[in-house]
Specification:
Length: about 675
């Protein structure tokens, strides 16, 4: 790799403090003390502890956290106005959701932004680690030196995790390349080949072990600085990812030079070693006793739903690590736009584009009800009297009126009695949101039996009342299906029958007003529930660890959701719990990739919608609910995914001499 691509004079360190400002807040004195800089002498920064902390703060701020301001097609810290058009979160590339204008799933083309993003920042980590030696025993005490070094190892591991899960084996740089550069030579030492994928995962785990060895149990230096438990949590996540690649590689095997050299793929024989790393890291964190489930024993499912929703809107004992956001009306472009883009149409905070997070029927069907028979089985929404819930129409206008649809008196009735986490995470038709009943309806059946769906229409029923296709006359009074298949500009309504609720600011005096980049919700990157689920998955996949304990962990999550039974430890139960517990937390997409499930689902795959339709053929109109192939997926003839896209292409191979990934 050419050194001049990243070359930076050791005497001048360029520090981009925009990100540090974005993280600054009154609750974090450390970041408060960092002043905005553009270009500063390296000697000046390294001459004081505050200067060294300025450099460390820049490392923290550049960590590639997949938070509110991350969009797979655009990058990290994506607050630009263009994100209005390109804002698509990872769950929208999975079977959990779709953007309301029909954003196509990732994998058909690669943006490759991360390679160029990561390596300059990895270089900064290496420069920081090397520069620390100049401060040891002088500017920094031995204890402070050891702490800052451990934090830098954590950041570097975080950077490499983002690389390896995208590219497989990568170029491992454990030092800055300046000393390897020799003017007027061919600089052969700078052409560093890719390490194998196994070596790359092992390097990340090694850096995390270095961090764990010297991080304190509580980092009193700053609220958002990592401690030992954060490093254990990331190690749990990383090891599970590597283990899954090893175990499920043969479900989507690739061929080519990169495979032959081990640059992509991990031998199946390595799976249990990685699972054990996950088990050990998870258990160490859990046994540390610093974290506990938020509100683990609700009085009933209604309380459980309220508790689970508030988990993501309040500081609490379950959060291991997160990233704060400032009010963008005070510090420009320092918040996020989740509320502006994704609040339902009927109760949005004033921005012209909203309601853009359409949740699929697939994830809604995955939640349990409260039968609590000891199986943990998902409970599909009941739409028919004959129990045939596996039939999906290509278009609701084509429905057969002879089908024994179940008739409901109101929009919310089919969802009553479903798992509390459903109601805390998803706005279903007829649900209340900010004191407003959310009307989601996609059609009507006229008195003469004519079906009108996905189009404006109205009719007076036998009861003398006027009824509308969308459930109301004014767009201000409904939230679903209008403009389906229309322009991106006006796609402000769910196109699946459901809206997201998790993370929307619903409680208290924290409602954001019109505009973007001004929501302040803290993104939760790591929480205890994920560690429980990581442990359980690693145990059931490998046969290692404590199966009784793993079963207890998943049942603790279910009890927190209001369930009264205990379910057995099976892979199906663990994966179902993971999906419903962590929906819309940017985990489902990665889970489908690491377990090699993505190509199976997207083999001409279609996500699904639930279309409520009011039937005017009866004296008192009733609602039916129609299972439909999601409109945009159906229009596309189903979505496809080439298994080559489990890895992104390596950029710049014409000059960096790196081996390309298969299929590119």
């Amino acid at each position: 790799m050419k050194n001049n691509k990243f070359k930076l004079n050791n005497n001048i360190l360029i520090v981009f403090m925009f990100f540090v400002l974005a993280l600054s807040s009154g609750c974090n004195q450390w970041f408060d003390e960092v002043k905005p800089l553009t270009k500063v002498s390296g000697d000046q920064l390294l001459a004081s502890e505050k200067g060294v902390l300025t450099l460390l703060a820049e490392l923290y701020s550049s960590m590639p956290m997949e938070d509110f301001n991350y969009h797979p097609g655009s990058g990290f810290y994506y607050r630009a106005m263009g994100a209005t058009f390109y804002a698509a979160y990872p769950d929208m590339y999975s079977d959990n959701a779709i953007r309301s204008d029909g954003q196509e799933p990732l994998g058909t083309s690669s943006t490759n932004f991360y390679w160029a993003y990561a390596y300059p920042r990895i270089r900064n980590c290496n420069l920081f680690l090397e520069s620390l030696d100049r401060t040891r025993g002088g500017v920094l005490s031995e204890a402070k030196y050891t702490l800052l070094q451990a934090e830098a190892y954590f950041v570097r591991a975080y950077m490499y995790f983002g690389l390896v899960k995208r590219y497989g084996g990568v170029v491992i740089l454990d030092h800055a390349l300046d000393r390897d550069y020799i003017p007027d030579t061919d600089n052969e030492p700078l052409y560093i080949p890719r390490s194998t994928e196994k070596e790359s995962w092992d390097f990340i785990l090694s850096d995390l072990d270095k961090a764990i060895a010297n991080l304190p149990e509580t980092n009193s230096e700053g609220k958002y600085r990592v401690d030992k438990w954060v490093a254990y949590a990331l190690k749990s996540r990383v090891a599970l990812y590597a283990a899954s690649i090893a175990k499920y590689w043969n479900d989507a095997p690739l061929i080519g030079e990169a495979v032959d050299k081990g640059l992509v793929g991990i031998p199946a024989s390595e799976a249990n070693r990685y699972y054990q790393e996950c088990i050990s890291a998870s258990k160490a964190l859990i046994d540390g006793g610093k974290f506990s489930l938020y509100m683990p024993n609700p009085a009933n499912p209604e309380v459980a739903a309220d508790n689970f929703q508030r988990l993501f809107l309040t500081e609490n004992s379950e959060i291991i690590y997160g990233r704060p956001n400032l009010d963008g009306t005070i510090v420009s472009s320092s918040g996020h736009s989740y509320d502006a883009w994704y609040s339902p149409s009927q109760n949005h905070p004033g921005y012209l584009r909203h309601g853009r997070y359409s949740v699929t029927l697939d994830i809604v069907d995955a939640f349990e009800d409260y039968t609590d028979d000891g199986t943990g089985a998902s409970a599909k929404i009941v739409t028919r009297e004959d129990g045939n819930e596996d039939l999906y129409y290509t278009n609701p206008n084509n429905l057969e009126l002879s089908v024994p649809f179940k008739k409901y008196d109101d929009l919310f009735e089919p969802f009553a009695g479903k798992d509390a986490r459903l109601h805390a995470s998803i706005i279903v038709p007829g649900a209340m949101y900010k004191t407003t009943k959310i009307i989601i309806q996609g059609g009507l059946i006229r008195k003469n039996g004519e079906v009108v769906a996905y189009a404006a229409g109205n009719e007076v029923g036998f009861d003398g009342n006027m009824y509308y296709t969308w459930g109301a006359e004014s767009p201000a009074n409904y939230s679903g299906f209008d403009n389906i298949g229309g322009s991106m500009e006006n796609s402000n309504y769910t196109c699946t029958g459901f809206c997201v609720r998790k993370y929307l600011q619903e409680f208290g005096n924290i409602v954001v007003a019109g505009g973007t980049q001004i929501s302040t919700t803290t993104w939760i990157d790591l929480r205890l529930a994920e560690i429980y689920l990581n442990y359980a998955e690693a145990v059931v996949e490998s046969g290692q660890g404590d199966a009784t304990l793993a079963m207890n962990y998943i049942n603790q999550l279910r009890r927190r959701a209001g369930h009264s039974d205990e379910i057995p430890l099976t892979l199906q139960n663990v994966l179902k719990e993971r999906r419903v517990e962590m929906a819309f937390e940017h985990k489902r997409y990665d889970d489908m990739l690491r377990r090699r499930e993505y190509h199976t689902f997207w083999t001409s795959g279609r996500r699904h919608s639930l279309v409520p339709i009011i039937d005017l053929r009866e004296e008192t109109p009733k609602y039916i609910f129609v299972r439909v192939n999601q409109f945009h997926d159906e229009q596309a003839g189903g979505r496809t995914f080439n298994p080559n896209n489990y890895y992104e292409s390596i950029p710049g191979i014409a000059t960096n001499r790196l081996v390309q990934n298969p299929g590119f």
